[in-house]
Amino acid sequence: MNVNQIWRYPVKSLQGEQLASTQVEDSIPGDRGWGIIDTSTGLLLSAKRVPKLFDGQARIDGTDCIITFGGDEITSRDPKIDSRLSSWLEREVTLSEPTVGETKSIEIEWDDGSDESPDDPDIFEFSTSPGWFFDSSSSLHLIGTATLAFLDKRIGKGSGDVRRFRPNIVAGTKEPFEENNWVGKNLVIGDTEISVKKRTDRCIVITRAFGDYESSRATLRYLSANHDREAGISMSPITSGSIAVGDRIEVQ
Fold this sequence. Notes:
This protein is mostly beta strands. The chain contains 4 helices and 17 strands. The protein has a single domain (3-251), classed as PK beta-barrel domain-like (M1 Pyruvate Kinase, Domain 3, Beta Barrel). The radius of gyration is 18 Å and the shape is globular.
């Protein structure tokens, strides 16, 4: 079994970039290295509540983050970045990097997918880990090719699109949800050892429209009914190192 794809998401909730290889430290360097903050509330914006973020894309060029949205491209160093993002999102925002020791709050729309268009969804807040824009204490996410292919076939085209699940690593697996069996074990990829912490709980983000696909709760509804609303695994690096597409994945 080998690494099929590697992804990095420089700005939280924007589409990311595929990598041929990367270093791994406490995370993939630059992953969720920026976030968009609502200046009126102080909240870290997420596609959990702001679906439009999924229409944007980010990549890293040297030390700069290049953001594409609404047909425009702008660098994180541009003095107009905040005003341009504010116009796009129709609210006052700033592009920010995490501050050491500081947490940020995120609003989430809780949903199990049972209602395609809920009138009054439950909304609550949770905090990031200190100094991070990640949703949890796990900084790496993996999903298998067989899981994605199964969801695409079982639910409909686009249901298993990798962009919907936002993994860092896509493993070339043979059986759907095979990666579930790795929880509590370690993976060796390249010269990096990684601890598998838990199965990844899915949220409203996987229902959002993107690209040619319309918004749909079908995938979330299926996972809620059949897989405890989980797909993929959440992980944390044990040792620093490098990983590359094609590297063998050893389960220990």
